[in-house]
Amino acid sequence: MTSCGMRLDAVPGAVGEMRDSSALVGDPVALRKRMQRDGYLFLPGLLDRDRVLAARSRLTSELAARGHIDPDRPDEAVLRQGSGFDPVAFGERPYPVDENPDLRSVLDEGALPDFHREFLGGPVRRFDRNLLRARAGDQWSATYPHCDSVFMGRGTPRVYTSWVPLGDLTRDMGGLMVLEKSHHVERIRHEYSGRDVDEYCANHPDAAEWLAGTKSWDGKLSDDPVAVQRSWGGRWLGAEFRAGDVVVFSIHTVHGSTDNLSDRVRLSVDARYQPAAEPADERWVGPGAAERSWDSMRGRIC
Ligand SMILES: O=C(O)CCC(=O)C(=O)O
């Protein structure tokens, strides 16, 4: 098991399996208690598998049309070497969900919004900005450790991410990993999670560079997942994910992903839900939410 090119399981006890919480669906009190304790809920088979696969199909067709995957086996999404595939340009972008009706249906109808309504105890709002991830190749095979709080912490803290694998992921394809009980680590919460990717120190000499966009922070907790586990304890937890599974986690849960060591493209989407009546981070909702803009930069006295 590697992430960002580093072996996570070199130290005994450093990795483990996510706990299956699907038996708790229908019992919101138990779900909240489990979230409070673990910082995530792994819900295998919660979603309509056929819908998830149909949503995937649209993306693999796009990849095939652009010549990035083997056209004879588009379902497998086997990467064509030298095809110029750029996982960041294709994935890692706000995804226009409306252009993929099956994905829209997964996110807005049935089990997923029902789950969030039950879990949050009332009407929910899905963020308008949803991220597609395509992970493949050496350089972009994983996501570095971070918390979502630094990206979307300007509204209610009751924002929950749903990470949805678009397809069956064998172990060598990697997938989401969460750091066990990291949402309880006070220092992460107060030092790292207190920051915001669009904030700069207005009284520092480099303020103009932040405003011009020549200086920025990418929200990383660290680019070394092994050091993160050693420093903060807990295990990196993962699973072998299938289409139809979902992992829900809090904005204070440290997470990232394991490397995709296979020859196939790993596709997933992350969508966020919060109580409809609570304040929402303006960068993620409403018109223009899809494009992150420097207008959202905020200066503070540091
Ligand atoms: O899919 C991944 O590589 C990581 C996903 C992630 O970081 C997120 O959902 O916030």
Explain the overall architecture.
The protein has 302 residues and is of the alpha+beta class. The chain has a single domain, classed as q2cbj1_9rhob like domain (Jelly Rolls, Sandwich). It is built from nine helices and 15 strands. Strands 4, 5, 6, 7, 8, 12 and 14 form a seven-stranded antiparallel beta sheet that branches. Strands 3-11-9-13 form a four-stranded mixed beta sheet, with no helix packed on it. Strand 1 and strand 2 form a beta hairpin. Helix 2 packs antiparallel against helix 4. The protein starts with a strand and ends with a strand. The mean pLDDT is 93. 2-oxoglutaric acid binds next to strand 7, strand 8, strand 13 and strand 14.
Spatial extent as radius of gyration:
19 Å
**Count of distinct strands:** 15
Q: Bin the strand percentage.
A: 15-25%
Q: What's the helix count?
A: 9
Task: Name the CATH architecture.
Answer: Sandwich
Count of domain modules? 1
Q: Main sheet?
A: 7 strands, antiparallel
CATH topology description? Jelly Rolls
Mean pLDDT: 93
First-to-last CA distance: 39 Å
Give the C-level CATH assignment: Mainly Beta
What percent of residues adopt helix (DSSP H or I)? 10-25%
Q: Low-confidence runs (pLDDT<50, min 5 residues)?
A: none
Q: Helices and strands: which structural class?
A: alpha+beta
* Hetero compounds: 2-oxoglutaric acid
**From N to C, what is the helix and strand string?**
EEEHEHHEHHEEHEEHEHHEEEEE
CATH superfamily: q2cbj1_9rhob like domain
Shape: globular
